[in-house]
Specification:
alpha/beta, D-Maltodextrin-Binding Protein, domain 2, 5 domains, five-stranded mixed sheet, 17 helices, rod-shaped, transmembrane, receptor
Length: 539
Amino acid sequence: MVIGGRPYVKDVLLHRSFRNTINALYLAIHPDTLATTYTGLLSHSRHIYQVGEPHVWREAWLYRRCLYCNNGESGVRYIYHWKHNHFLTNVQLFHGDVEFKDLGGHSLRYIAVHYFPYIAFTPDTDQPLSKVTPIDSLDYRLILAFSEKMNYTYSIYGEPDNSWGEDIDGEFSGLCGYLQREEFDVSTIIVPTALRLKAANFIRSYPTDLMTVISLKPQPLPKHLAFIRPFTGTVWVAILVSVMVWGILLWLLTRTRSHITGDESIQLNTALLYGWGALLAVPPPDPSVSTSGQMMVGWWLLFCLVFFTGFQSTLISHLTVNRARTRPPETMEDLVKADGWKWGIEPWILSGIPLEYFTRHTDPVVIKIYKEIEVLNADEALEKVSKGQYSLLDLTYYITIHVLSYYADANGHTPFYISKNGFTFMSTFGWGVRYGAPFYHRFHKLTLQLEATGITNHWLQELITQRVKENRAKTHTSQKERLNQNSEELNGGVVLGLDHLQGAFYLLFLGSGVALVMLVAELFFSITPQAFGQLREII
């Protein structure tokens, strides 16, 4: 509250030192009163009176500073004309929150750093600090909503260095620096830190963008090994041993019986081939006429029925629904534990707060990640990811838009897996506001309302989908689509073709080759000298 003469009302209340003052009163005393010597002014309840000569007191005028009453600018409002022996009654000296619900067309200056989906724009000129034309983005939608709700105009400028701000001996650069010097009123997306909060206020506007791990999706097993996929190696070895042992036991059983009874015994190769044929559900004629042999064959046929049924059903499922061999890494701990795994990050991310996170963290996992991390752009990193044994650390929303825009097929399938277990290295995202801004609390309240109703998150997801469609419309075909050749197989069932059944044909050719070699061996060892001489004469 200021006491003085009427000619100085505007000079005082509109002085720049009161630019952030919400409530300011000016009591203009009558000139005769000011010229009179008095003991002092005392205030009590709603009474203001002079101690001294009562006849000297004439009249006074009470004025109040208003922030946005002069077409959005500061102004002076007359409140009350106070005459001698009158009491100050029914006068509202201070305004409440009503004034900040309507800024009367006040012009706010925004400073921004390009970072979609939060804020995007195109510069109007080539000047370092110039106005920009905003593109549909989350912050721009918030600006439109706030400006309509609170009745203010705005202008948006692009930060020349595209920097959020670094502390240099208490003086900030980037967005924080402009807010600290009060050159701008509000900044778009910024991350609060202990040092930055010394330069400006902060409004939490939306959840933080998590850091995630991008890896190659699990690849299917080689198709030429599809026929052995239903069982593990241990099961296959056990089956092979069972065939051999059962064939030998059957041969020994029939041979022992033939020595005792004189009946004819079966050969070892016949017993082995019978066991193998029964396993393939095409057994040859029963090689045994004895009860004990038939009992042994019966139990073997029951075993083969269970085996063949399980093999057939499992083989069908493996051929129609591809199974992954391994799971991709989800977290930094998975990256460190994986043998021979490498990882990278984009250069623009490894700066500022993310760099502080990696350099100051004491966790051995984070230390190892930072020590062995490679710095390269997104496309170079994704090219390495497509070859396997490599992952990219990136921000979730940013990399999701990039991958779905340039590496997805017509059905939206990509060869890359974006981890769902992202980790937080930044507390939250929001707007920066210069210290003392009267509208700060009103902005904060509107932000909480939009987030609580889910509108902010809805806008965010809508912008991501919209940007992906726009990017894909600009690039109908791309060389990057060669990375999607297996995307259909990775995301659902397929129609079986020769490529999927190549293992069966390899097995057929292998068996035919072995049979041909055995035929030649049989002919070579069974030919007599006379027949060999006749064959030589014919040749």
